[in-house]
């Protein structure tokens, strides 16, 4: 389990639609905004990188000091971004893949408008469970 | 790729890596030049850069080349040393602070933020100019390091004034080794610098005679070629006014003197002389000197280091040396060492732009330093290699690799190499920038950031600009680094810079949905502005973050606390147009106003308009008059010019419902919530439109602010409340106009925490959502908030009491409708309509006087019932109050209503009362009062009936009543059962005591009881029925007692309710005379005392309608005859006569045929199939037996078609029908007939005489065909009728 990990799903319009702090580290007051800043800035890199490869998992694309940003881009250009300080590439990849599955299930919900915020508590618990499992 | 020399880095290198001239001067020289406001160094500096020197240069190779641009760097000997870090830092800090002030004042004056659209334009348009200066200074700070040779003085210029005593000895003194810079003395630099002697003569001191004399002395002493004379200050009085003062651009940095005075005593000749001197110095001394040295060194290097032999030797030698010095800096090299000389050779070659030579030497030395672990020197050489590669414009990769290598090596040295690392980084960045690799440049900037916070702030900011300039521009990175930079600025108290960077970042983050980012930026800008005392701007930024529902509670408290503190500091009431706290749910906005529609209860206003419309449709005169053309009627209703806006009445409040939501977890006090309205006395639409446009132009806040000024024309309500964390509250606001004119609701204003005023303009919100469906949809949204105020007209107030909110099904009550008219004008022509006549019916005026449960009782004195007159009212049309009814003044107008809880469940009762104004002058001619009540009805008794015909008598039925108490706690007394209609007579089979031993039905209890029902009018038609006296149709189910009287089900309310129940429960067709309706009246048991029901019901009626008695079709019959008979069979067979009574209960003449079947022996057997058939075809109810089929071989087909031909010999019929085999007859409607039957019996026994079939047929009429349940013909098997015949003795 990573000490710091922040998971964000960013819609194709660059709007965060799901946010979760999944690290075990004690939460600092300003960490949330720092994480957002880093992930937000990393979008610039993703934007370039996403079109250079056909793989969905882009590995780590950006780093800020000790924090690394790993990104997974779905076919609909929704980006799963994970900010982490651990080096567990396989785990992160599996995490992304499983979250992708969950995300697709959410998309299949006829009451969910694609691109809107994911408020499902079921999704949230599942993601957190996956984070515990893989990260 | 442009020429490397033309790039910013190339320019910088050509300026910075140039030969150094060390200047030694006497005080009197300085004195002379200070007359011009310049030091001697400054006097010479402008003439040290040559744009077209055009000198041929021949270095190591034989091929000469020409230099065009050249530059010298002049330094006083005292400055030839490592710059003082502290001074440099202070200076830098000052520069930054000044820049901050300047930029800040600029940014405050014009609000326009950096538009990232023009990021395509060149770098220097976007980046602040002081960056360049700062970078240059940072590079300079790292100069005069002992590991580099390009700062070594190439030549020493010794200047002595002609005023000085003993000038020759002064020249010698000046170059005294004790005074020389330490670098020269400690062996890092070659102390044997070639010297040039300059005699300076001040023309103001007199003619140059003495000077020329000294010059000849000098020439003889130091050699003719090394000495020269410089005359300055030739201009006597008039200061020269040169257009371009050569010093202006050099001195502006620090000098306080105006640039005009600079060099005021130097005339053209002086300037030209200086120019010639410097050019001479460069072309005749410095360059040849350097050339010579390069050649010399090159020879040495070639001799000792070049060639295979030397390389091997060097390698071996170095290996041996390796064990020795192992310090961080590696071994020290003095200027004589071959390594230093190679470095000097390289640097000189670089300065003379023989980059190939420089590179080869750098390469040579780089490996040596690496092996020696002289890291700083190694890094320095790598750095130069990188630059050389760059200047050669070849092998970019190599160049970058070298720069990175150098940078990393410097960094490894820690604080020792920090300055050099910065310089190296800056060069590297410039190199990357020159190649448009801005992204990489930005990362280098990021890496430059060291311990010095201020420097890293500047570097981060520059990094951000690099991201902006990269293609495609990385705006998010730009924003992020600006924020990082701002943080650093803040840490070293450069608040203005911090604000500037954050403001720039805001241009990226504006409108972002990344909430934490948004909050962080706005909060800090707000805080910082507040710390500068600019509270207005601070508040503006702080308002952005108030609705931070995603933040933790402590953060929310912090935000709100800081915000309120800042607002407090402004010292005035702050007004904000878009205050986000609390959140207004604009879609919840609802405007309720009363024009011709008035609402008696608040819930009535919330009911759909369409519902009221359909209810009032028949009442409103316009609708009934011209229903076809609604367009016309609209214009008739209200004069055309007003038809655009809504109408409201003076003194009647217009209410607005708005939802306020607190997104925070902390509670916030809201006070003074009022509507902001605009009143104008004119009702003219055109005028008000003009006002409209002028208001739009005005500042909204202004208008919102002065709302209190004209409060005389309207009155607004004021609401205060505390909104808890996460709460949503619906607030009702109202405005009451006080004068005729036009009124417009502009928005809502409120006060947060008593200090800050927020506004919300309704129009600016979401106009689409503000649909108040009162008017046509094509209205402009603004029209919803515009009202035409008309003069006061009467308004009725109405209420119904005491209407129970919760009751049991069947509850019957008398209610009173109370109408009041507070105004002095009367209203007339009252009409009323009720949505649910099943629940609520209108009584009669005289009911007011009667006492409630008693008036339902049957009166002892028979009073002619007026029920049938009443039934005219009971249509669905409007109830008209009696002519002349007028409501006015304080006395309420009362009218009785009857209420009955018809079905369990929640029911909304709507009623609308129409009235017309007494005076016709008003715009509104009539109004309606709408009342809405909700009633919750709980289930009480579940009543069901079952009727089966009696087999003993025609027209008699057995009724079974099942009553179940469905309540949870209540007990009821089942009081009375009545059959409705005049020809039904009902009576009990058991005594009431046996049915209800406890006199009541407890909760959950079920009970059944039986009654006989008799049709008492068997031969009478419907018309006759009315005139006959009523038969006994009520049965009391409680023991007789004196005070309890029977309820009259023909009393008006019961009868009318029954009427609606009949309509509701209608299953059959009109005119079926064989149905019976029952009314069961129950009462709550006396002993009940339920606190949940403050107002328990007195009487409850349950209506069950349309129970058909004719279960076997319209024809019923009965076989009449003896049961037991004695006969002497020895004499003869026995002949028995029977009678069959047939009754036709249908309304038409029926054709009946009776067929007797003589398959006698089968009497007991053949029934099997037939009975089953008859049971199915006849819908037979009640009890009947089904004998199992005994003979399977007997098919039904045979039995059906040939019943008479199937007798078998062994089963001879025991009797035969002896009368006519088939009888046909017609029976009139509602009449009976009698036909004789006869059988012959041959032996004693018991006989079942069911061996006949009765066919009936009704004439089919067209309209009845649609009814599925109705039968037109049928076939009935005979009843079992047992006849016992005994042998008489």
Low confidence ranges of chain A: none
Rounded to an integer in angstroms, the radius of gyration calculated over CA atoms of chain B is 59 Å
Helix fraction of chain A, binned, reads: 25-40%
The percentage of residues in β strands of chain A lies in 15-25%
Q: By helix and strand content of chain B, what is the structural category?
A: alpha+beta
Number of E strands of chain B: 49
Structural write-up:
The complex is a heterodimer of chains A (135) and B (1289). By secondary structure, chain A is of the alpha+beta class. Chain A has one domain (5-134): Beta-Lactamase (2-Layer Sandwich), CATH 3.30.450.70. Chain A has helices at 31-49, 89-108, 121-134; strands spanning 5-10, 16-21, 57-64, 67-73, 79-84. Chain A has a 5-stranded antiparallel beta sheet with strand order 2-1-5-4-3. Chain A starts with a strand and ends with a helix. By secondary structure, chain B is an alpha+beta fold. Among the domains of chain B are: 4-82 and 143-291, Rossmann fold (3-Layer(aba) Sandwich); 583-606 and 628-790, Immunoglobulin-like, CATH 2.60.40; 807-1109, no CATH class; 1115-1287, Sandwich (Immunoglobulin-like), CATH 2.60.40. Chain B has 37 helices and 49 strands. Chain B is elongated and about 195 Å long. The chains are: A alpha+beta (135), B alpha+beta (1289). The interface between A and B is medium-sized, with 18 and 21 residues.
């Amino acid at each position: 389990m990573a000490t710091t990990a922040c998971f964000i799903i960013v819609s194709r319009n660059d709007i965060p639609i799901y946010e979760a702090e999944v690290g075990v580290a004690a939460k600092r007051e300003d960490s949330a905004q720092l994480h957002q800043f880093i992930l937000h800035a990393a979008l610039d890199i993703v934007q370039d990188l996403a079109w250079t490869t056909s793989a969905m998992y882009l590995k780590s694309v950006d780093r800020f000091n000790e924090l690394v940003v790993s990104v997974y881009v779905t076919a609909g250009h929704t980006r799963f971004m994970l900010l982490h300080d651990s080096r567990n590439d396989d785990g992160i990849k599996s995490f992304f893949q499983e979250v992708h599955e969950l995300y697709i299930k959410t998309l299949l919900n006829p009451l969910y408008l694609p691109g809107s915020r994911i408020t499902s508590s079921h999704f949230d618990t599942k993601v957190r469970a996956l984070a515990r499992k893989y990260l | 790729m442009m020429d490397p020399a033309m790039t910013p880095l190339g320019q910088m290198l050509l300026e910075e890596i140039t030969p150094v001239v060390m200047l030694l001067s006497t005080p009197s020289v300085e004195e002379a030049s200070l007359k011009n406001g310049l030091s001697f160094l400054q006097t010479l500096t402008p003439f040290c850069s040559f744009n077209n020197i055009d000198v041929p240069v021949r270095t190591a190779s034989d091929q000469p080349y020409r230099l065009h641009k050249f530059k010298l760097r002049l330094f006083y000997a005292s400055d030839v040393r490592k710059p003082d870090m502290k001074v440099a830092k202070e200076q830098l800090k000052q520069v930054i602070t000044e820049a901050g002030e300047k930029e800040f004042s600029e940014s405050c004056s014009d609000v326009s933020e950096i538009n990232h659209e023009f990021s395509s334009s060149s770098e220097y348009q976007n980046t602040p100019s002081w960056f360049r200066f700062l970078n240059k200074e940072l590079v300079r700070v790292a100069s005069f390091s002992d590991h580099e040779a390009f700062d070594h003085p190439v030549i020493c210029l010794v200047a002595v004034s002609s005023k000085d005593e003993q000038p020759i000895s002064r020249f010698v003194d000046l170059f005294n080794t004790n005074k020389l810079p330490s670098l020269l003395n400690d062996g890092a630099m070659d102390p044997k610098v070639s010297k040039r002697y300059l005699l300076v003569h001040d023309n103001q001191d007199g003619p140059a005679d003495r000077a020329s004399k000294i010059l000849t002395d000098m020439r003889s002493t130091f050699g003719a070629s090394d000495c020269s004379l410089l005359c300055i200050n030739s201009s006597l009085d008039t200061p020269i006014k040169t257009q371009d003062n050569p010093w202006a651009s050099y001195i502006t940095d620090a000098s306080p003197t105006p640039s005009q005075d600079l060099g005021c005593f130097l005339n053209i000749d002086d300037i030209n002389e200086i120019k010639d001197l410097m050019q001479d110095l460069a072309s005749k001394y410095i360059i040849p000197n350097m050339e010579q040295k390069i050649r010399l060194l090159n020879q040495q290097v070639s001799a000792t280091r070049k060639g295979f032999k030397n390389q091997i030797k060097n390698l071996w030698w170095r290996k041996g040396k390796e064990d020795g010095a192992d310090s961080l800096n590696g071994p020290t090299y003095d200027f004589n060492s071959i390594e230093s000389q190679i470095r000097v050779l390289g640097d000189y070659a670089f300065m003379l732009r023989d980059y190939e030579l420089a590179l080869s030497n750098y390469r040579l030395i780089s490996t040596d330093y690496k092996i020696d672990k002289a890291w700083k020197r190694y890094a320095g050489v790598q750095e130069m290699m990188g630059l050389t590669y760059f200047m050669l414009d070849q092998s970019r990769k190599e160049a970058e690799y070298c720069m990175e290598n150098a940078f990393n090596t410097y960094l490894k040295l820690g604080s020792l190499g920090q300055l050099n690392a910065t310089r190296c980084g800056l060069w590297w960045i410039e190199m990357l920038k020159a190649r448009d690799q801005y992204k990489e440049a930005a990362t280098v900037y990021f890496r430059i950031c060291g311990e010095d916070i201020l420097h890293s702030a500047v570097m981060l900011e520059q990094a951000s600009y690099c991201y902006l300039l990269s293609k495609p521009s990385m705006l998010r990175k730009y924003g992020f680094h600006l924020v990082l930079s701002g943080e650093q600025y803040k840490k070293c108290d450069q608040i203005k810079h911090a604000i500037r960077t954050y403001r720039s970042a805001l241009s990226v983050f504006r409108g972002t949905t990344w909430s934490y980012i948004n909050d962080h930026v706005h909060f800090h800008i707000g805080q910082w502005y507040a710390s500068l005392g600019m509270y207005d701007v601070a508040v503006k930024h702080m308002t952005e973050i108030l609705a931070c529902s995603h933040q933790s509670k402590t953060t929310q408290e912090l935000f709100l606390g800081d915000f309120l503190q800042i607002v407090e500091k402004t010292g005035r009431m702050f007004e904000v147009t878009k205050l986000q706290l609390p959140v207004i749910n604009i879609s919840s906005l609802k405007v309720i106003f009363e024009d011709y529609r008035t609402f008696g209860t608040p819930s009535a206003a919330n009911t759909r308009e369409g519902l009221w419309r359909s209810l009032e449709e028949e009442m409103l005169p316009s609708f009934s008059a011209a229903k076809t053309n609604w367009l016309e009627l609209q214009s008739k209703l209200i004069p055309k010019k007003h038809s655009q806006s809504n109408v409201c009445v003076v003194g009647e409040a217009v209410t607005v419902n708005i939802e306020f939501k607190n997104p925070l977890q902390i509670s916030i006090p809201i006070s003074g919530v009022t509507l902001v309205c605009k009143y104008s006395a004119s009702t003219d639409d055109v005028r008000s439109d003009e006002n409209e446009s002028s208001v739009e132009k005005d500042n909204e806040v202004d208008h919102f602010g002065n709302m209190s000024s004209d409060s005389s024309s309207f009155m607004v309500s004021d609401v205060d409340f505390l909104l808890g964390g996460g709460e949503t509250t619906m607030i009702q606001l109202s405005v009451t106009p006080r004068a005729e004119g036009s009124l417009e609701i502009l928005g809502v204003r409120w006060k947060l925490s008593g200090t800050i005023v927020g506004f919300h303009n309704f129009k600016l919100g979401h106009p689409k959502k503000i649909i108040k469906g009162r008017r046509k949809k094509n209205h402009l949204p603004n029209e919803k908030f515009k009202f035409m105020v008309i003069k006061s007209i009467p308004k009725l107030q109405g209420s119904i009491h005491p209407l129970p909110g919760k009751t049991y099904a069947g509850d019957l009550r008398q209610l009173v409708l109370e109408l009041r008219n507070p105004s002095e004008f009367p209203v007339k022509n009252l009409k009323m309509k009720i949505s649910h006549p099943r629940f609520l019916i209108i009584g009669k005026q005289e009911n007011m006087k009667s006492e409630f449960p008693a008036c339902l009782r049957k009166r002892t004195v028979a009073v002619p019932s007026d029920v049938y007159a009443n039934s005219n009212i009971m249509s669905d049309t409007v109830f008209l109050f009696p002519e002349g009814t007028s409501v006015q003044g304080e006395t309420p107008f009362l009218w009785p209503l009857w209420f009955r809880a018809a079905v369990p469940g929640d029911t909304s009762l709507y009623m609308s009362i129409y009235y017309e104004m007494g005076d016709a002058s008003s715009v509104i001619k009539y109004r309606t009062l709408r009342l809405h009540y909700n009633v919750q009805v709980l289930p009480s008794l579940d009543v069901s009936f079952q009727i089966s015909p009696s087999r003993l008598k025609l027209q008699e039925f057995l009724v079974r009543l099942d009553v179940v108490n469905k309540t949870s706690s209540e007990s009821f007394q089942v009081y009375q059962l009545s059959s409705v209609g005049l020809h039904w007579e009902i009576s009990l089979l058991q005594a009431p005591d046996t049915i209800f031993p406890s006199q009541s039905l407890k909760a959950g209890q079920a009970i059944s009881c039986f009654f006989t029902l008799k049709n008492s009018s068997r031969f009478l038609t419907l018309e006759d029925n009315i005139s006959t006296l009523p038969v006994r149709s009520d049965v009391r189910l409680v023991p007789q007692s004196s005070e309890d009287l029977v309820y009259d089900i023909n009393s008006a309310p019961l009868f009318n309710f029954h009427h609606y129940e009949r309509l509701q429960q209608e299953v059959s067709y009109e005119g079926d005379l064989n149905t019976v309706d029952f009314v069961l009246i129950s009462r709550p048991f006396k002993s009940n005392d339920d606190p949940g029901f403050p107002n328990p019901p007195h009487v409850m009626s349950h209506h069950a309608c349309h129970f058909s008695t004719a279960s076997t079709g319209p024809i019923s019959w009965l076989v009449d005859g003896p049961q037991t008979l004695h006969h002497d069979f020895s004499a003869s067979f026995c002949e028995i006569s029977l009678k069959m009574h047939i009754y036709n209960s249908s309304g038409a003449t029926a054709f009946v045929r009776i067929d007797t079947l003589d398959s006698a022996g089968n009497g007991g057997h053949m029934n099997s199939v037939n009975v089953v058939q008859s049971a199915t075809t006849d819908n037979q109810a009640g009890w009947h037996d089904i004998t199992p089929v005994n003979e399977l071989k007997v098919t039904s087909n045979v039995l059906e078609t040939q019943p008479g031909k199937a007798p078998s010999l062994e089963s001879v019929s025991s009797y035969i029908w002896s009368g006519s085999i088939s009888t046909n007859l017609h029976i009139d409607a509602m009449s009976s007939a009698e036909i004789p039957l006869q059988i012959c019996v041959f032996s004693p026994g018991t006989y079942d005489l069911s061996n006949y079939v009765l066919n009936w047929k009704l004439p089919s009429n067209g309209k009845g065909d649609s009814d599925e349940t109705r039968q037109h013909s049928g076939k009935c098997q005979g009843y079992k009728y047992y006849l016992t015949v005994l042998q008489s003795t």
